[in-house]
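Fold it.
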Amino acid sequence: TANTSACPAYCLEESSITDVGMFVWPQTFLGNVSTVQCPYARSNSQRNNATRECAFNTTGSMAYWAPANISACTAFCLAESVSTDRGTFLWPQTLLGNVSTVRCPIASSNFYANNASRECVLNTT
């Protein structure tokens, strides 16, 4: 049998999709913490980081990715198309706490704004 104990253990590169976006965690040596930028920010000057440790699994004697700390990242609502009795609305991806406004699919002079709006709120269910 081969003795590989002198070789460093590491976690393989991994992609993960969360409610705050997609993260690509680079190959990281055992015991180290990987830091990557959050996918979305409220502004270009306010981009935060997420972290994730490459930990040791004592059961299987292998390196593994611990849960990521994404608490500093900004959540968002995904872009989606929603059909109602007032038409089909194409909502853009929107940062948490922001309101997106789109034109009504069918405009009428009887309605003042002819815009629809939707706030991105955190789904706690």
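The chain has no helices and 13 strands.
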